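Annotated sample (chain length 135).
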Amino acid sequence: MRLQMPLFPGYLFVHIPLRERLRVLEVPAVARLVGFSGMPTALNENDVECLRRGLVQGASAQPHPYLSAGRRVRVIAGPLQGAEGTLVKRKGNLRVILSMDLIKRSVIVDVSEADLEPVFRPKYVSDAVAATFRA
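Output written by the structure step:
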């Protein structure tokens, strides 16, 4: 038996026009939309899509404490191609910590050094939002 745990407990990701936010808040157990000063704030859509695509294609990921310091890299090949994260070395292997900055959540994934390139520019913002919910 294999138990599957959510990568980001307490979060539900939705892609909706801002005018539809009330429909999300009407869902039982949804507490609020993530944002600042009462306004929903978008997650980086590329981050969400790269992580989703990688998991669908079989990438191994596990929750990891949020980490914002370290060398930024971009995955240039494999199921997580396009994802950006922080490079770390753990148990002799290279791994990348993929973080959702807005919700302060991260996962760590194994990578090959050949599949990485350094990142020197800031990330952009899109229109995906996250809603928190009560478990």
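Annotation: The first strand starts at residue 11 and ends at 14.
Annotation: The chain is about 15% helix and 35% strand.
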